Amino acid sequence: MVILLAKTSRIQGFYRLPLHKRLDIVAEFSGLSEDERNLLIKEGNLDLEVADRMIENVIGTMAYPFAVAVNFLINGKDYMVPMVLEEPSVVAAASNAARWTRKTGGVWAHASDSIMIGQIQVVGVPDPYGKKMELLMHKEEILRIANEQDPVLVKLGGGAKDMEVRVVQTRKGEMIVVHLLVDVKDAMGANAVNTMAEAVAPYIEEITGGKVLLRIVSNLADRRIVRAWCKVDKEEIGGEEVVDRIVLASALAEADPYRAATSNKGILNGVIAVALATGQDHRAIEAGAHAYAARNGKYTSLSRWEKDADGNLVGTLEMPLAVGIVGGATRVHPIARIALKILGVRSARELAEVMGAVGLVQNLAALRALVTEGIQRGHMKLHARNLAMMAGARGELVDKVVEIMIREGKIRFDRAKEIVEMLTKAK
Ligand code: MEV
Q: In Å, how far from its chain's centre is CA 427?
């Protein structure tokens, strides 16, 4: 009788094992070859030792392309914008669209103070509206306890600045939700806010007689907003007809959640690429963006495009951006530090302004393509480049393979391979 032992992923103390031991186990579990193992632990620009300290259960690192979008003029200052992502066309599109805005002064952006919200959920209070008043009466004391947690932030002019109390109706009855409004200055701020929310919880229980459950930052960072806007000369983008079409596309995104989600995805293509390059918590940014887009009960576009009296295009964007230039991966990841240096931003606010501007410009690029030749032409060219490289082409050969595939209208891996073989033999 043959007994087949099922593979198990239940491994006690996996996190305590050294990296190489963990890799052995995974390699055994998944049948990784020697080459595959070596690739996983190949030292790149993030040391394995640093990676191993950043998160748990590390068995290697993974590199992504790091690019720079050019032509950005934001608030009168030139920026080289580092972008990390896997999708072709995005960087080229951002650079192109940034160029269209230059003649009219570039992009303008303004970020609010770095106010984050910490939520404290209180349950089991029979008179939540009465206790809301009592909590508000004790506001100064609650803020004092919160600020005791972070004297450095307070010294920098930040800290818990205000408090709001809401009574939220839920399917489990009414709950009190206290919001601490914390100016986190140059940090993303989740850690500072979470620490404060936890610290004030016992006092809040004392005042309300209720039980505190959640004590956590809200990613709907609607007090930490960036606004970006630009004017584009109609001649830069193909004339008034193109302006009109972009306005029609924008109107659809404003009215229809199905289109809004895609339009916002295009905005986030730019925003998240900068977030990845600079080591931000990009999940927080995405969660905030989508929640903000739905803040009025219906999901809508984060941007709006209009035509001005002269027939030129005017774009505006408003979104929350919880980003930092101190703490987290911005400090430990050496490439994130270099990205911030390339960008040359001096504060989290300036970083948010750049990211908002990039989002707006990325949106413009996508809309311009969508209302004219469509998105696929540019995509296919880059897709063809990828295929050519996967098929082994390098250097000048890549362009030749791409040219032939596009001419033939056959952008496929098998054809790329055939062409590479043919051209290599012909050499
Ligand atoms: C693709 O990554 C992004 C777009 O779909 C955005 C848009 O439709 O506006 C092109």
A: 45
20 is known as an active-site residue: no
Instruction: List, for residues 36-67, the tens digit of each pLDDT value.
Output: 999 999 989 999 999 999 999 999 999 999 99
Percent of the chain with pLDDT over 90: 92
Q: Report which of 414, 420, 425, 427 is spatially closest to residue 394, judged by C-alpha positions.
A: 420
54 & 19 share domain: yes
The CATH number covering residue 358 comes to 3.90.770.10
> What CATH number does residue 416 fall under?
1.10.8
- For ligand 1, the distance from its centroid to the CA atom of residue 273, given in whole angstroms, is 14
Query: Would you call 379 a catalytic residue per the annotation?
Result: yes
269 lines ligand 1 (CB under 6 A): yes
DSSP 236: G
Whole-structure pTM value: 0.91
Tell me the one-letter amino acid at 413: F
The DSSP H or E segment spanning 282 is helix 282-293
Distance (Å, whole) CA 365 – CA 354: 16
26 and 149 part of one domain: no
Indicate if the alpha-carbon torsion angle 182, 184, 190, 191 is positive or negative: negative
Closest listed residue to residue 327, CA positions, set 319, 318, 317, 337: 337
**303 touches ligand 1 (CB under 6 Å):** no
| 262 in contact with ligand 1, CB cutoff 6 A | yes
Question: Are residue 40 and residue 79 in the same domain, yes or no?
Answer: no
Domain that holds residue 51: 1-63
* Count of domains for the chain: 4
Where does the pLDDT of residue 3 fall: very low under 50, low under 70, confident under 90, or very high at 90 and above? low
Are 119 and 207 within one domain?
yes
Q: Say which of 150, 186, 281, 350 is annotated catalytic.
A: 281
Do residue 170 and residue 150 come from a single domain?
yes
Mutate to test the pocket of ligand 1, among 370, 371, 377 (most ligand atoms within 8 A of CB): 370
Do 404 and 343 share a structural domain?
Answer: no
Would you state the pLDDT for residue 4? Answer: 56
Catalytic annotation present for 414? no
